[in-house]
Amino acid sequence: MKGRLLVAVVALLVGSIGLAAPSRAETGSVSVVFTKGGLVIGVGGGEGVLTLRGKHYPFTVSGMSVGFTVGASTGKFVGRAYNLRGPASIEGSYSVAGAGGAVAAGAGGVQLQNANGVILQLSGPRVGAEVSAAVGGVTIRLK
Fold this sequence. Notes:
The protein has one domain: Lipocalin (Beta Barrel). Helices cover 13% and strands 72% of the residues. The protein has one helix at 2-20; strands spanning 26-52, 55-84, 92-113, 119-142. It has a four-stranded antiparallel beta sheet, with no helix packed on it. It is globular and about 45 Å long. The protein starts with a helix and ends with a strand.
């Protein structure tokens, strides 16, 4: 009887440990205004806000690209931040590779990932006259 009771208690504990460790990754909403310009080397910067658990966390965005870049544009992007482990996990360098452009007004979208595993999926209009086929990245820092 004692052996069966011990086995039952151990099974219950093992089962509850598995249930007590849910994924801590969260999803937040993001809005970013980013201005970019250049000739061959593009540079840009902007600001954004992460909204997580009803709180707002302002951040700065800076970036650079190397390749074919001509002109200037401003993007107003909104989207989601996935795999967050708290607001600080949005910080870091995000790699970007791709081609895009905006003339007068256009829509754009991007998916970025940092070393913390945070994935940003952003989309929105860009205003200006800029064409690029460049490889670069952006860095996000909380204010």
